[in-house]
Amino acid sequence: MKNMIFICITALLLLAGCAHGPAAVSPAGQADLSPDRGGETAAAGMSDAAAGRENPVPTPPSGDAADAEEDFAGENPGYVADPIEPFNRAMFHFNDKLYFWVLKPVAKGYRTVFPRVIRTGIQNFFTNLTMPIRLVGCLLQGKGNAAGFEFSRFLVNTTVGVLGFGNPAKDFPELNPHEEDFGQTLGSYGIGNGFYIVWPFIGPSTLRDSIGNLGDFFLNPVSYVQPLEVYLGVRSVDAVNETSFRIGDYEAVKEAAFSPYEAFRNAYIQHRKKKIRE
Question: CB-hemisphere CA count at 13 Å for 88?
């Protein structure tokens, strides 16, 4: 029984994926559509990509290795290579089933038990806690004013907002700069995406953003929670709580897409390009 509980908690932890990382994707590859997480969302981009109406990722001639190399060097940001597409499609399918069979049912039950005001408070707490990721991202990109505003938001929400469960800083636009992460920082330095990757449990990423996720992991205070059981529990709560806000969004985009895999891939790449431009 204990082993089964440990396995379930571990699965939910992995489903947390990049809850505070690039694009905040869900386990099934869905960009974070939550209105309370802060920053811009990829909702519009996902809908357009799903319907195949706007800004599809350009497809270069087959076997054009030069384009892939240029993208890695940051010279051709409009194209992201997908050389491991069979693996990526398998992982997309795996994550899709995991979402419907595990994460969604748990999140629906969680949403039934806890009212929105409590879930919003928990969401605010984890957003406030990951301030170091955004602060360091701003500093590394030379965004001094944004770094100052980010730190000020942390102070306001930690004190007036009672450890971040409240979000009084949301009423002051200047205290809510664009979200930043290490993947965006690498992109701002001209480092290309590399190639597209779909990780099991985590969802869509690129080689660059995967490296960025590692940097964000070490900047996230939750990563240092001990013992392991407590860490798994904290990450599981974060994952389930985040999912409880966007149940139905992933399903809607998937149903509207002619090819869900390509729709979510395009939406992810478009969203990341937009975040880097900001």
Answer: 20
